Amino acid sequence: MLHDVLLEHVVVHSFSDGSGTVFFNQVTGETLGVSLTAQQLERLVSNGETDTSVQAQELHALSRMLKLPSQSPGKANA
Amino acid sequence: MPSHQSLLLPPFTFEVRTDIPLVVDNLKRLYGSRLVDMASYPDYFVSVQKAEGIRRFYRPQARFFADQQEPFQPLQQQQAYAMLEWGMNWCVATHEMQYVIIHAAVLAKDNKAILFPAPPGSGKSTLTTWLAFHGWRLLSDEMALIQPHSRTVIPFVRPICLKNNSITLAKQWFPDAIYSTVASDTHKGDVIHLSPPESSWQQNKEPAEIVGVVFPNYRSDTELDIYKLDKTQSFMQLAQNAFNYGVIGNDGFVTLCQLIDRVAGFEIFYNDLALVAEFLQQELIDAGR
Amino acid sequence: MQGASWLIALIKEPQLAATVPKQDWVLIIRLLRKQQLLARYSHLFRQAAVFDALPAYARHHLQNAEILARKQCNQVAFEASELVTLLAPLKVTPLFLKGAAYSLALGASIGQGRTYSDIDILVPKEAITSVEQRLALHGYFGEPMTPYDQHYYRQWTHEIPPVRHHSRGTIIDIHHNLVPPVSGRAPDISHFLTHLVTTEQGYQVLTLPAMTLHSIIHLLFNEEFKNGFRDLTDLHLLFLQFKQPAQWDALFELATATGFCTELFLACRYCRSILATAFPDDFYQRLERQHGVTKNQAILDFAFKRVLAPRHPVTDNWQDKLADTLCWLRGHWLKMPVSILLWHLIVKSSRGAMVAVLGKSYFEPERR
């Protein structure tokens, strides 16, 4: 589940139209939106896979909200 | 002749002191019966005062205080009234944490409200003025106060702040409306405040339900282009215009997420206000019938 | 009862809040806001289970302040862990002081609802430059200030000009001593450094007695008392935390060793007379014997009882203003050798004249 891999103080919401997911860090006030559904994010988190191409910098942004599996930047770009 | 009066601006009450005649005159004209002698439960104590020293005579300045705090640099005295309006916004934006506050205009028909969040320069206030004087009810020009965990928006009726070219336009369209004096050369350019129609003032305690979020962009070469935003885009744009959502934490986040999940979001590019009004009416107001 | 008397009565007995006439809340809220005490009182009212009985007007403003304070409390933990991580490569462990320390170490009592505008840390003097540079590398920059103020800070004080995080806006005050060395009263900092504890979350703070003495020095070895009442309530709440005789002994001994017995005596005297703070008899008698009332005591009492009261210009009289002046002079006198004092006053006062002539904006560096 997506909720299990959130960093501390981070809350998450996936929108009803399937357009994406937003994260909010309640301490820093930082907000992040990505055009990945909860299911896509779960796949990304569990085995590093995604059907859309996720760029290294997007992964970097996501790593401020989620515990991501460690992977080389090269693989993320591929 | 220092003046000391209260402004009844639900949901808040301001106690206002000033020794600047220009400010007194504008307050009387724009706020009418909302300006009273002394209210019992003022929420904020604000004042605009002439700056001391030689500045009294040479390019006279005005200073704004929220009780003992001075959040802004002094401004020219001819800008004192605009400064008071901004100062009152500052009080609400920095202290009020029990509403989710969005930098947005709010207009309603049949208590169905549309939020128009927008950065300066988007033509938001021109649109607000036009709609407010064409049968829409103004709930707010600058600040949408949203009740947490609901779609309910609380009115905070205040004068509309018009800038530069929109001043000329508004005066052409609505010559009989009540305008403040011009504050020239502010950080926003020339600025004028316009009192909304009496009907909006009279319903300033009546909440409305948000049915849509529209991000306006004035384009001189475009009659009306409409883009439906997906919910993630709408949310991110809305969050960018939120004043206090970073402070109030999860309640603010959840409120905005639920709001966006339930209402439609559009971005519009326009120069034809009547077309915009028609679109809003059909797509957002009549749609729920 | 008037606004100020209510503030004093309510900190002693928060449950009295239920008896405050509705109209009196307007001035009470105004005074509390001025003293930055809204959130602290709100917490006291909740503890005493009277919050829900208060009029909507009072609850509204108290609750706004609570939300802001809660956010600050969460954020300070985050900021503190950032600082610890940033300074670790320099082998510097920051010592958190004042407001931040109350939140980090005493979050359940004095930290609750305590608000502050910056985070104070103490680092070894020889590490100051490397700390400043490392923070600048990570987005903490100095605020614009006049060259005179820059010079004054660097030359004469116990801290460097505050730095501000470029995006979060957090302000960090970096100290190398608790008192300006120029005063000749700066304690050998090692006395304080034997009174350190680490919180459960791993932050370094002073022990309760040392933290209390620092709070006392900060309040009484000073010339400005803008938040005098707020700081006095800090002390009151800190004293309430003392549970063992050893803590009172430690406080007394640290004050003696660092030469701040007078300040300790005055703090206890005014906490007792203004807020009815309770002290163990033997501690207080020992303090009185050691220090004793001086021949100027009447003047000190006149001045301090006024500057430490919940003040606001709408309620001030001429005696209050005289008290401010007396304490301002005393504070400057304590902090600086005479020659520097005169120089500082002259510069400040000619600046004052310029401000009077040209308006306040004349000297203020342009802000973004």
UniProtKB/TrEMBL annotation, chain A:
This protein's name: Uncharacterized protein
Lineage: Bacteria, Pseudomonadati, Pseudomonadota, Gammaproteobacteria, Alkalimonas
TrEMBL record, chain B:
Keywords, sorted A to Z: Kinase, Transferase
Keyword Kinase recorded: yes
Superkingdom as given in the UniProt entry: Bacteria
GO molecular function terms noted in the UniProt entry: kinase activity
Keyword rRNA-binding (UniProt): no
InterPro entries attached to this UniProt entry: HprK-rel_A, P-loop_NTPase
Full protein name: HprK-related kinase A
Organism of derivation: Alkalimonas amylolytica
UniProtKB/TrEMBL annotation, chain C:
Keyword Transferase: yes
One Pfam family this sequence matches: NTP_transf_5
UniProt keyword list: Transferase
Top-level taxon of the source organism: Bacteria
Gene Ontology MF, one: transferase activity
InterPro entries xrefs: NTP_transf_5
Name of the molecule in the record: Uncharacterized nucleotidyltransferase
Taxonomic source organism: Alkalimonas amylolytica
